[in-house]
Design brief:
mainly beta; 39 strands; five-stranded mixed beta sheet; Collagenase (Catalytic Domain); six-stranded mixed beta sheet
Amino acid sequence: MKKTFTALFFILCAARAFAQEFPVDTLYKTGPLDSRINVVILGDGFTEAEMPKFRTEAKKFADFLLEYQPYNRYKSYFNFFAIPTPSEESGVSNPGTAPDAYPDQPVGTKKTYYSGTFGSTIHRLVTINFTAAYNVLAANLPTYDLIVVLINTTYYGGSGGSIAVHTLNESANTIGAHEIGHTFTSLNDEYWAGPQYGWEAANMTEVSNPAEVKWKNWLDSEGIGVYKHGSDSEAARWHKPANGKCLMEYLNQEFCVVCREATTERILSIVDPVGKIEPDTSSAFLVKEAASFKFDLLRPEPNSMQIEWQLDGQPLANGVDEVILKPEDIAGSGKLTATVFDSTHLSRAETMQMGRIRTLEWRVQSNSPAVFKIISVTDSLCAGGSTTLTASGCSGPVSWSTGVNGNAIIVTPGATTTYTGTCPASEKTATATITVLPLPEVVASNTGPYFEGAAIELNASGEGKFFWVGPDNFTSTDQKANIRIAKIAHSGTYTVKVTNQFGCSDTASTVVIVEPILGTNSDPAQWVRVSPNPASDFINVTTSLSGESELTIYNIAGKKIRTKVFTKETEMKLNVTAGMYVYRLSNGGKEISGKLLIK
């Protein structure tokens, strides 16, 4: 059911009596206001002459947020509106009394619609007159879920709470996303703002035990742990899931997986993805002829909706939002159910997932005599898949060609197969043919290993649609995916899912290695010597270390060119094109890298 902010309901009702009406600009509308998340963007410090600027900035921010994770997965769940409210003066008030006030920012009071002002004690804390904003919403668009106010200044600042506020600073978009994290999702800052801001939130807790912490399901994700907010006694009481790797701490980061989960669950708690249901479920439906049972469904991008249909508890169909029933499918009366669940990988919260299951139920009736037949959940499968065959219209257990008895069986055909069921009571038979579709042939590879700063290139074979996932929240839909500048955090396993023209998918993985370019020893002559350098056809390598050493040559992209194991001294032929290369020598736990110029 649709939820809206209602704490100020009575205030809003009273405010409508005297609040001014303004035009409401529709930026994006994907559906009815009572079944979407309605985001309203207001502007403060924009004069009448600056209304075009406000509309441009409002549209720019809406576009940004709809492409930001995880909002980009649920674009169809949002409506965006802008309400232009001209201010008498352009800009924002600045008391100039905060110790961190910007020295180059003019001090003074501006006559603006929402009385926007920088903070008097914390300068970057930009606030507005909330009552003025609520009055505007009450008179112009009372069915809202989120208010965002843009402040017409390029100086850095913003605030969260009941309303998200941010300036037009060069970091405006991420400031806004950060503040919306507070306002929409009730996330807390992951930098330590003081003991007055310490409380339990999705990304803050006093619990330090990894087995009990609220984000325990994400502890296997890179960068996620149980980190103290600081070293002093009060800060050390509180813990966060990421350390310098989340938008709620630094604007140059994206949401960590814990904050994405909380945001996703907030979205799914507001919007019911199931829309119009046909026929109505309030009374029994008499099936006189082939009848359609269906519902409208909001699907994320990519689609993560699971749909399961059952007739009298037996599987009927999967993955579709419409089924057809004939009179003979129903033995007198029965129950048709459709279960809808968003299986998004963005959330691992089991308790909240249970609340996201929607079950639709129709009572169905028929006056036709039962006909013995076999119903399959699907008539085609991808190789390795299973389906359920259900027999109806037989008074006793059915004998199947697989050698088992019962009214339903699960089959996993290795090739296209026809299954036969026999009703012993009537000696009638029925068949169902399951077509097996091929999986794509998938191979994943990369051009590494790499050093930091090199370009990573991931390659996938096959034809169809591609979807890569990997470390550091990497995703791509390209067959040949690239990471322009390699970092140590990019090391790890990358998996690509390929979906062919039949809708069948398979995956393959490749391991990427990114290593640091190590600094040379302060006295390399005592450790290792590579000569000549510059070189042409060969190099001599000597080391004072005992035991086996391994020498590896990489090109500037991080691709391994030559490798050799030796003791004390060796000669390596090069036979490579001219250019800059990197060598690395390892011996036990010791290693050193250096540059090698080949002419």
